[in-house]
Amino acid sequence: MDIESLSAGLSESWRCLVRDWDRCLRSTGRPETTRYNYLLAVIQLGRYVAANTVGDAAEDPAAVSRADVESFQAWMIETRSASTALNKHKCLQQFFQWLAEDEQAVTRSPVEGVRAPQPPTKLVPVISTDDTTRLLDSCKGSGFMNLRDQAMIRLYCNTGARLSEVANLRMEDIDWSTDSLVYHGKGGKTRRVRMGPKTARALSRYLRARARHTGSELPELWLAERGGVPLRANGIKLRLRRLGERAGIARVHAHRWRHTYAHEWKLSGGDTGDLMLVLGWSSDAMARHYGASAAAERAQESQSRMRIGDDV
Fold first, then answer.
1. In the predicted model, what is the mean pLDDT of residues 210-221?
2. 272-286 pLDDT, tens per residue?
3. Contacts 24+ apart (CB under 8 A), 119-126
4. The pLDDT of residue 122 is above 70
5. 311 CB contacts (<8 Å, ≥6 apart)?
6. Which end of the chain, N or C, is less packed with Cβ atoms under 10 Å?
């Protein structure tokens, strides 16, 4: 993550605090994807106040007011969505809490008292088996990238892992004696997850190609096509999007398989506690959220079976 490029155009005070906060986040073991989201929210706020306010806020984050945060939040809702605005709200809460407690640069967070956006409740679209098959078909072949992409897609589909969890896999995380993987989840939590036979076979084929690829000595599991460097989470995100475009499937991203995994688990009558362990959740609120589409489908099946009102 190139913080200097991300924060280009901000005042020196904003840029220094962004760097310092990233250092703090790294020292607590926050993954790169989390750090990126946190820092991006602060940088976007900095650019917004520089373009839309008069006063010291454009030069110094400590001068940001509650009104600045509310205006930025409203702009996010108008130009992006309430869900995105809520994400930014949570990130800014963390930043200004750090600014107050660690840096003692403010006595009160400007986010304090600002109401969090309320995104409309909607069912997250799952990705169908047919669409996953089309994606796998789009990267058929024996080339390095073909085998790598097939293995990545099968891991997301077969284990319901987060984007960062698959992206951050290392060679040492694979246990071929049990066909399982160790995922490093949020908050430093680790869990072991088993692979199905097709996924294990796809990963084994990729590893044979990887052994002949530049950079095979690196500890990271996923390698980029050229240069002998690891393929990071953002690279996987872009790659999945391109594969989706090639296959004619819109909005392909790793999280859709996570929702699909929870959806299929609940439709099959799986235990919620077991699902929490497999997907690395500590709260059943996440299970309810991710399983909402399955609950709606079960309700529709019950409605059809009961035929209420059909005998009139």
1. 96
2. 888 888 888 877 777
3. 119/81, 119/82, 119/83, 119/86, 120/82, 123/292, 123/293, 123/296, 124/256, 124/259, 124/290, 124/292, 124/293, 125/251, 125/256, 125/259, 125/293, 126/256, 126/259, 126/260, 126/263, 126/293
4. no
5. none
6. C
